[in-house]
Amino acid sequence: MHLRPSNILLAGASGLTGEHLLDRLLNEPTINRVLAPSRKPLAPHPHLENPVGDPAVFLPQLSGKVDVAFCCLGTTIKIAGSEAAFRAVDHDMVVAFAKRALEMGARHLVVISAIGADPKSSVFYNRVKGEMEQSLRAQGWPQLTIARPSILIGDRLEPRLAEQIAGPLSKLIPGKYQGIEACHLARALWRLALEEQEGTRVIESDELRKLGK
Asked: In what residue span(s) does the Semialdehyde dehydrogenase NAD-binding domain sit (predicted)?
């Protein structure tokens, strides 16, 4: 079953995937409003509302009807500065955003996690992603879609060295570990948002690539 959401809440619109997703959303004729809070101003658009500032301040102030929420938030330990700062973004901020989206009436959350996410993982990054997924499941979403992409390929404003090195090589890896273009991931997220079903669905990177082409 497919639906046509018209009111969207988007976190992470200034990131690699978020930029592609925002562009797609603003060019969808059925969408009336995209509410995309960010730390820095986004390019203006008639259908875009862009609260700017500290998420801790503006999250409680977000208002209006929401059909679907997308969460493209994510950082690295190097950029964040510490494991604690990384967890504050990739777990705490994601969970807080999702909670507010649910309060605003969103029935479907589409969130970017990562390949290998596992709350019991010995790898800190994967463990945090797994704990984030666990926390979102506990919120009781009518529909929760968890996307687990492999290495993202695309041009960032602030390049990540690991992605620059591993990205091109990852195209040679078969299966779900093969890298995925950020524009393809964004297209897959939108297509997933149009599917209506109850409960939680986890989409691995190989399926995301197929959906995004």
From this structure: 7-105
| pLDDT tens digits along 2-51 | 567 899 999 999 999 999 999 999 999 999 999 999 999 999 999 999 99
120-162 pLDDT per residue, tens: 999 999 999 999 999 999 999 999 999 999 989 876 445 544 5
Correct CATH for 7-212 of 3.60.9.10, 3.40.50.150, 3.40.50.720, 3.40.190.10: 3.40.50.720
- CA 53 – CA 164 distance, rounded (Å): 29
Domain ranges of the chain: 7-212
Residue pointed to by tokens 């790898």: 123
Q: β-strand 108-112 against 143-148: which pairing, if any? A: parallel
- Is the whole-model pTM more than 0.85? yes
